[in-house]
Design a protein that fits this description.
The protein has 3 helices and 5 strands, in the order ααβββαββ. It has about 160 residues and is of the alpha+beta class. The strands form 2 sheets. It has a 3-stranded antiparallel sheet, with no helix packed on it. The protein has a two-stranded antiparallel sheet with strand order 1-2. A hairpin with a 5-residue loop joins β1 and β2.
Length: about 160
């Protein structure tokens, strides 16, 4: 027989096999050996408690104080450095974005990238829309954010 047939035969026999009664509690078990049924009254056994281990204080050394004072300083310095690098990296990426697409992207007063010459108005009132038109803006796109029930206009 090939190994594949042996494996298939073994799997089929395993599926057809009945569990041995000796393995089941209350299922007949071994002749002459009785196991208590679940929930039967069992005798109580007093188990001595293990005493708690005493707390041992290790002696403080001068190095402990240095570590306690130095670790927060070092981690704070690392955090500050990483934060500064993150801000610097963001600034460099934004500068590259504006440099690569000057016709469509610019930075606003806060340094955030915006689409050049466009204003997004969320759920503008009729009065706000009239004021924008009077200031020379025109609506170039209008849609609804149906998921949140808000309309918007893109003004140019």
């Amino acid at each position: 027989m090939t190994q594949g047939r042996i494996a298939a035969l073994s799997a089929a026999l395993a599926l057809l096999a009945q569990p041995a009664a000796a393995q089941l509690i209350g299922g007949g078990g071994l002749p002459g050996v009785g196991l208590p049924s679940p929930g039967a009254d069992l005798p109580s056994v007093d188990v001595p408690r293990t005493p708690a281990a005493p707390r041992v204080r290790t002696p403080r050394t001068p190095a402990d104080r240095v570590v306690r004072e130095t670790v927060p300083q070092v981690t704070g310095a690392v955090d500050d450095t990483l934060e500064g690098l993150g801000a610097q990296t963001r600034r460099l990426r934004l500068d590259a974005l504006v440099r690569d697409h000057p016709e469509s992207i610019e930075l606003d007063d806060a340094g955030a990238p915006v689409v050049r010459g466009r204003v997004l108005a969320l759920a503008p009132s009729a009065q706000a829309l009239a004021a924008a038109r009077q200031a020379g803006f025109e609506a170039v796109e209008q849609a609804d954010l149906t998921a949140i029930g808000v309309g918007f206009l893109v003004l140019r």
